[in-house]
Amino acid sequence: MKNIILLSFIFFLMSCYDDKGNYDYREMAEIKIENLPETLEILGGIEHIVAQPKVTSSLEGEIKDGNPNFEFSYKLEKKGGSQLYDEAWVDLNPSKSLKLDTLISIPSGNYVVWFAVKDKRSSIEYSTTFDVKVTSSTYEGWLVLCNEGEEKRVRMDMISVISADRIEPAYDLLSLLGLPDLKKATKIGFYPAPVQTGDVIYLMSEEGTYKLDQNTFETSDMYNIYTTDFIVAPSDPDENIIEYMPLANMGPPTARAIFAVSNKGNVYALVTAAGAAFEMPINTSVRGKSPEYRVAPYVGISMVRYPGNSTAALFYDIDNKRFVGWSFKSPTTNDINQILTPVPNPEVGKLFDFKTGMDLVYMEGTSYSNGLVYAILQNASGKRVIYGINMSGAGFVQESIYENLNAPDFDKATVFAFHSQFPYMFYGVENKVYLHNLGTNITYEMTNIGLSANEEVTMLKFNLYHNNYWWPEPTEEFMARQYELMVGTYDNRVSGVDGGKLGFYKVDGANNSITKRVEYSGFARIKDVRYRERR
């Protein structure tokens, strides 16, 4: 028995001796990380986060990009441990490369970036940190709403006014700020509310409308307009708000009422003196009754701003092909503020029937002639006419009619803009922009825009300021920009989804011409532009 035990012990020692050579007793390397900043200060959505660290191993020397034994990561998180976009951190470097050069749209604030070096052979990581301070690039400037790619993904770009001497474009600002994946952008809703409550910005699309946080531009499902501004959301899940328009008050810089129009042809009114939310559709003759017809997605109001000069709004009934109107009454009789009424023909001075029998192509309010609304209508044979309806005072005054227009391809035009200082209509057809003088019935092609056959006009617009109370007093140059023609174009020769350009053109009222002041590029397909005004 003793011999058996001794023999077993000898075999155990032999097995231990044979196994000793199977272990790797390599020395552990020391990793040194250099050349990272202590703090980076950037403009969110405009300036890149850039890092070029030097990584050295005590055993292998400098570790360069492309070394198959190592990978690198950069993870950004808010200081203080709070979550960012419902995540603990954001991966800045999915490619795992050593150098970092990335553009990210995040709210202003203080962040920390964790830089890590991983030895893939041992799975051991070495890390260090640096701070990132983000300053807002969304405080003031032109909001540029776009449709990106064939799917028409909703995208918000911006031409940010950082100072009088620095204006920078910023792109895809909302991709990491909580905006749901929406398609088919329609318009930007903007209401410069009083200072104590801040301005209101709505991004509208065929798939949903969302309010943006006035400081960070963050949004979420909780910022859906039906959650923030409606007493009861529409029962149709496919009904979405695609137009949002405030009617200026006759007193301080607030809105007398705000109107919202949906893709289902319903219109809602929020009367600020009577409540803080939209009620039931007002395209009816009795408050709260089911809608009786559908309206076009336009609101015709006087664009004479605060203090406003009108108590009325104009809509178009697309089922009965007629104009219908809204008129403000004392909030004590709020029933009348929650209905629309067919606009009657004038007893004298009739220029046309308010029940037109035609299709509405486009409608736009201006400050021309103290508050003229232009409506483009098309009859069954495809001929287009323009009606001018003055909305100052109680509104609905027939002022002008333009028939037999000497306007090439006007029947094919898809985008329009009416000037508020001159009787000018601009319209776009494919890659051409025309100026039509309504007073002389003469049309001029704006050849100096110079678009190629592969480019197209996607938007024409004048950005009339809502605010009329500025401090400090703005310059004449700044105030004049609201009368510049904004031309959105898209160059289909550009690879990817960034072929959009936005040009600003001064309008010459004496010579029927325009002159380019400046142009910015790198946008997606521009749908709407709205200047974010700040007092």
Automatic annotation (TrEMBL):
PROSITE patterns per the UniProt record, alphabetical: PROKAR_LIPOPROTEIN
Protein name: Uncharacterized protein
InterPro entries reported for this sequence: PKD-like
Pfam family, one: PKD_2
